[in-house]
Write a structure and sequence with these properties.
Blueprint (H helix, E strand, L loop, with lengths): L21 H14 L8 E2 L1 H8 L3 H13 L3 E4 L3 E4 L4 H25 L2 H16 L6 H18 L3 H14 L11 H19 L3 H19 L7
Antiparallel strand pairs: 1-3, 2-3
Helix pairs in contact: 1-3, 4-6, 4-7, 4-8, 4-9, 5-6, 5-8, 6-7, 8-9
Length: about 230
């Protein structure tokens, strides 16, 4: 025990608490507004209006917008503002296709590698979703839905795969019809499909997990995005 009250070395290996910068906060808030379709594709928004809405200066907002432009979310129109990039049919189909392949892989690996702690967390995500199936907060429902998918990806223990799934899930919401959780029937179907995937992973049955993930996503696409999904 350190008698002098020194904290030196106590947090070694755990990193330190980081203060979120204005740029990081602006990036997160603007990106979420794009993902959840509050900022509409094809519409020009002034940087000044965004700064006023966020209540911060131009520099951190400009830095956040440059990063979002590099990631393909927006175009910065000189002298006009920013424009959210629209996704065409080809891009949408590519995202749908990539999501299926990535999540099938993560489901298989999770079935092989998931620890008790991973299974407990996936079960917790399922419980949270079930408790909010009747919620009027549609964005909350989608957050919980994708929290489940990220929990499965985390249990695969492949950082590159996880990051790819995280990115695809974000792009997916840019065109997803955000009405699924307004239908109680669809919401219940999603929860049942998630539950089937969870039990396949819990049983460490990678083949069963493969088909549960594939069926869930194909059925989800057909329910809401049939115009874009073709094999």
């Amino acid at each position: 025990m350190l008698k002098d009250g020194s904290a030196v070395g106590i947090f070694s290996g755990h990193g330190r608490i980081k203060k979120t910068t204005y740029k990081e906060q602006a990036y997160r808030l603007i990106k979420e507004a794009i993902i959840y379709q509050k900022l509409k594709p094809g519409t020009i928004y002034s940087q000044e209006a965004i700064c006023q809405e966020l209540g911060i200066s131009r520099t951190p907002v400009r830095e956040a917008l440059l990063e979002l432009q590099n990631e393909g979310y927006i175009h910065i129109r000189r002298g006009r503002g920013i424009e959210v990039i629209s996704l065409d049919e080809k891009a949408i189909h590519s995202i749908l296709e990539m999501r299926i392949y990535l999540e099938i892989a993560s489901a298989e690996l999770a079935a092989k590698r998931a620890s008790k702690e991973d299974l407990d967390y996936i079960a917790e995500c399922l419980e949270n979703s079930q408790q909010n199936l009747d919620s009027q907060d549609i964005i909350l429902c989608y957050r919980l839905d994708h929290q489940f998918h990220r929990a499965v990806a985390k249990a695969a223990y492949n950082e590159i795969l996880y990051n790819a799934i995280d990115d695809v899930l974000n792009h997916y919401l840019r065109f997803e019809v955000l009405t699924v959780y307004q239908s109680k029937n669809d919401a219940n179907l999603i929860w049942k499909e998630h539950n089937e995937l969870y039990y396949a992973i819990k049983e460490h049955d990678s083949q069963k997990a493969h088909y549960a993930a594939k069926k869930h996503l194909q059925d989800a696409y057909k329910r809401t995005l049939g115009n874009y999904w073709f094999e």
